[in-house]
Amino acid sequence: MSTNKTGRGWGIFVVDMGQDFYINSHSTGKFHHSSFLSGEVVFSAGEICVSNGILVGLTNKTGHYKSGSDELYRALLLLQRHRYGPKICGGIGEGMDCVSVSDPFKADGRWRLANDVIEAGGDLTDHTLIGKAAATVPGPDTMEHIARRVEHKMNEIIV
Asked: How many folded domains does the chain comprise?
């Protein structure tokens, strides 16, 4: 997948009011966030990065919906509640240490760990994030690295 803002490895997502996720590639002039539900009201929307079934990145970047901190926070809580991601490397449900989050509307270029963003209520400009470690921007290299790390940990557990 790819998006016009974040690029290869990323898809756009929308969560409907029933809290169902929809994910696809963005295609300028053809398929946008508003295409999923014909522009209807949504629970959350943004961009998502998944590598080998492992969630590694999330933003609230949209053109139509202009998701804010609240929508980003709702998406993070929903993913955490359903325990998506690898528990073994501190993934969602276990601190979200493998997931990088950004809010290009309020804090463009700033990436934080999802567990810290949840503590800040989805607001990447919140003072509670001062002094917290920055997160790696997920891209093809980091996605593969995280996936290999998780696969290695899984093999250790199975053996």
From this structure: 1
Of 83, 102, 108, nearest in space to 93 by CA? 83
The residues, any chain, with a CB within 8 Å of residue 36's CB and separated by 6 or more, are 14, 16, 22, 24
Are 51 and 84 contacting, i.e. CB atoms less than 8 angstroms apart? Answer: no
140 vs 124: CA distance, rounded Å: 24
Rounded Cα–Cα distance for residues 153 and 127 (Å): 34
Q: Are strands 54-59 and 100-102 parallel, antiparallel or unpaired?
A: parallel
pLDDT, tens digit, for every residue of 4-55? 777 778 899 999 999 999 999 988 889 889 999 998 999 999 999 877 677 8
Q: Is the dihedral of CA 143, 62, 68, 75 positive or negative?
A: negative
Looking only at the bridges linking them, the beta strands covering 44-51 and 10-15 are antiparallel
Domain that holds residue 62: 2-158
CB 2 within 8 A of CB 8: yes
- Among 54, 12, 51, smallest CA distance to 140 is for 51
Q: Which amino acid is at 110?
A: R
pLDDT digits (tens, 9 = 90+) for 112-148: 988 899 999 999 999 999 888 888 787 666 666 666 6
